[in-house]
Amino acid sequence: MNQEHLTLHTDKYQINMMYAHWKNGTHNNVRVFEAFFRKNPFRGGYAVFAGLERILQYLEQLRFDASDIEFLREQEENYDEAFLEELADFTFTGTIYSVKEGTIVFPNVPLIRVEGRIFEIQLIETALLNFMNYQTLIATKAARIKQVAPDDTLLEFGTRRAQEASAALWGARAAVIGGFHATSNMLAGKLFGIPTKGTHAHAFVQDADSELEAFEAYARALPDHVTLLVDTYDTLKSGVPNAIQVGLALKKQGKALKGIRLDSGDLAYLSQEARKMLDAAGLQEVQIVASSDLDEYTIQSLRAQGARIDTWGVGTKLITAEDSPALGGVYKVVAKLEHGEWKPTIKISGNPEKVTTPGRKIPVRIINRHTGRAEADYLMNWDEQLAGVERLKLFDPIHTYLHKFVTDFDVIELQHKVFEQGKRVEKAQKLQEIQQYHATQIPLFWNEYLRNLNPERYPVDLSQQVWDTKMQCIAEHTNRRN
Ligand SMILES: Nc1ncnc2c1ncn2[C@@H]1O[C@H](COP(=O)(O)OP(=O)(O)OP(=O)(O)O)[C@@H](O)[C@H]1O
Ligand SMILES: O=P(O)(O)OC[C@H]1O[C@H](OP(=O)(O)OP(=O)(O)O)[C@H](O)[C@@H]1O
Ligand SMILES: O=C(O)c1cccnc1
C-alpha cells in the first residue's frame, strides 16, 4: 500500500486556504493542530485508536505530481502559476506526535499533534481524519465484539459489504487491532500479515448433485482445512449428518474435519443440536463456526442462551460499523508560533463542548499505583512537569467543583514522536504486536468505563494551567466582542 498516490485526497477548501496563505505571505507560519474526537462511538465508553500506519504512509508519499498540478490549474483559475510551481516542490516537513495504535482512548484527548508550516499541515487534515476516524471506529467495534467473546476465535468476513476496497483492507487490519484473529480477505492477509481463513459458500453445495458429494469433493481438495457449510438445505436433517459422514471418513485417513459452519436459523438451538450430534458420532474435536449478521449484541445473546459456538464470522456489522457509522474526529488549530513562543488559540462555540482547548498540550494518563488502574487522562501544557508532584488535583473541566486528589501515581505519556521535520521516525510495527499492546491496555481500566452497555464517563481533565489559559482566551474573545 506504500505506493498509493493520495495527495489530492483532500477537500478543495484546504488547497484554497493554502493558496490564500501563500498569496498573503502567511504560508510559512508555524502552527499546531490536534486531532481528537468529542463523543464515543456505539454509545460506548471508549475507542481504540487506529489509522496511524496509513497516515504515516500517506505523509511519506505526499507530493504533487505533474497531473495533480495540471488538474489544479484546470479546476481553479485564481491559482497563480507561481503557486502551482511551489506545489511542484512540496514535501511534508512537519513534526507529528501520536498516540500508539491499539491505545484505548477517550473523548477530547489529543490523539495526534501536528506541528509545522500552515501551508503543509492544513492540506493533510482531510486525509488524516479520514484514516483516523474510519480505522478507529472499526478497531473499536472489533474490541466491543471481542469483549463479549474473549476466548473464542473471531474471523473478519466483511469485505463484500465494506464501503469499497480501502475500507475492507484497512478495516480488516483495524479489526485485528481490536482483537480479531483472522480475515477472509487475502489481500489484507498479504499486505498486513494477517492470518487468512475461509470455509465455502452455498454455491459450492448447489453446484454438486448432492450436498454429500459437495462435501466429499471439498474434503478431497483441501483435506487439511475442511469446514463445511451445513445450512444449504436442512441443517439438522441433511447438513450436519453429511458433515459427520465426511468427518468420519477423514478420521479413517488420519485427517480431521476442522469444523462446520451455521449461517442461518436459530443459531443457539442449531449449535446445541449440532454439538450433540457431532459428539455422539465421536467428533468432539470438530468446531462450530457461526455467521449471519452477527455483532456484539447477537453474540452476547447467543452465548447467554448457551450456544455451542467456538468461532464467530463477523462481516457487515463490523466492517460498516452499522450502529454508529462515523466517528466525528476533528482537527483543530490550538497554537501559533510567534517570535519563538507558542501562543494558544481558541475556537469559541455556543455549545460549550465545542469550545476548543487552546495550547500546545501533552496528554498523559494518571495511573493509581495501588490499584494499577487509570484514574484519568490529564492534558497539560507542553512545558509543564509532573515529576516531583506528590499531590495532583484532578477536576472536571466543565463542572469544576467536582474534583479529587491523587497522591501515589504513575504518569504514562500517551503520545510519542512519529514524524520529525518531514522524516518518519516511527518504524512500522507488526500488527500482532499492536494487537498485544491493545490487550495489555484493557486491565488498566475499571470495567465501569469499558463495559458495552451504559458505561461511566472516564475523566479527561485539564491541568490548572491549561484550564486558566482556556478561561483567559475565552475572556479575551468575549471582551473583544463587547
Ligand atoms: N438464538 C438466537 N438469538 C438471537 N439472535 C439470533 C439467534 N439465532 C440467530 N440470530 C440472529 O438473528 C438474525 C436472523 O436473521 P434472518 O432472520 O435474516 O435470517 P437467517 O436465519 O440468517 O436466514 P437467511 O440468511 O436465510 O435469511 C441474525 O442476525 C442472526 O445472527
Ligand atoms: O452476515 P455477515 O456478518 O455480513 O457475514 C458475512 C456473510 O457473508 C456471507 O453471506 P452471503 O454473501 O452469501 O449472503 P447471505 O447473507 O445470504 O448469507 C456469509 O455466509 C455470511 O452470512
Ligand atoms: O469463509 C467464509 O465462510 C466466508 C467468507 C466471507 C464471507 N462469508 C463467509
From TrEMBL:
<comment type="similarity">
    <text>Belongs to the NAPRTase family.</text>
</comment>
<dbReference type="GO" id="GO:0005829">
    <property type="term" value="C:cytosol"/>
</dbReference>
<dbReference type="Pfam" id="PF04095">
    <property type="entry name" value="NAPRTase"/>
</dbReference>
<keyword id="KW-0662">Pyridine nucleotide biosynthesis</keyword>
<dbReference type="GO" id="GO:0047280">
    <property type="term" value="F:nicotinamide phosphoribosyltransferase activity"/>
</dbReference>
<dbReference type="Pfam" id="PF17767">
    <property type="entry name" value="NAPRTase_N"/>
</dbReference>
<keyword id="KW-0808">Transferase</keyword>
<dbReference type="GO" id="GO:0034355">
    <property type="term" value="P:NAD+ biosynthetic process via the salvage pathway"/>
</dbReference>
<feature type="domain" description="Nicotinate phosphoribosyltransferase C-terminal">
    <location>
        <begin position="361"/>
        <end position="470"/>
    </location>
</feature>
<dbReference type="InterPro" id="IPR040727">
    <property type="entry name" value="NAPRTase_N"/>
</dbReference>
<keyword id="KW-0436">Ligase</keyword>
<dbReference type="InterPro" id="IPR007229">
    <property type="entry name" value="Nic_PRibTrfase-Fam"/>
</dbReference>
<dbReference type="InterPro" id="IPR036068">
    <property type="entry name" value="Nicotinate_pribotase-like_C"/>
</dbReference>
<feature type="domain" description="Nicotinate phosphoribosyltransferase N-terminal">
    <location>
        <begin position="8"/>
        <end position="133"/>
    </location>
</feature>
<dbReference type="Pfam" id="PF17956">
    <property type="entry name" value="NAPRTase_C"/>
</dbReference>
<keyword id="KW-0597">Phosphoprotein</keyword>
<dbReference type="InterPro" id="IPR013785">
    <property type="entry name" value="Aldolase_TIM"/>
</dbReference>
<dbReference type="InterPro" id="IPR041525">
    <property type="entry name" value="N/Namide_PRibTrfase"/>
</dbReference>
<keyword id="KW-0328">Glycosyltransferase</keyword>
<dbReference type="InterPro" id="IPR006405">
    <property type="entry name" value="Nic_PRibTrfase_pncB"/>
</dbReference>
<comment type="function">
    <text>Catalyzes the first step in the biosynthesis of NAD from nicotinic acid, the ATP-dependent synthesis of beta-nicotinate D-ribonucleotide from nicotinate and 5-phospho-D-ribose 1-phosphate.</text>
</comment>
<dbReference type="InterPro" id="IPR041619">
    <property type="entry name" value="NAPRTase_C"/>
</dbReference>
<feature type="domain" description="Nicotinate/nicotinamide phosphoribosyltransferase">
    <location>
        <begin position="154"/>
        <end position="354"/>
    </location>
</feature>
<comment type="pathway">
    <text>Cofactor biosynthesis; NAD(+) biosynthesis; nicotinate D-ribonucleotide from nicotinate: step 1/1.</text>
</comment>
<protein>
    <recommendedName>
        <fullName>Nicotinate phosphoribosyltransferase</fullName>
        <ecNumber>6.3.4.21</ecNumber>
    </recommendedName>
</protein>
<dbReference type="GO" id="GO:0004516">
    <property type="term" value="F:nicotinate phosphoribosyltransferase activity"/>
</dbReference>
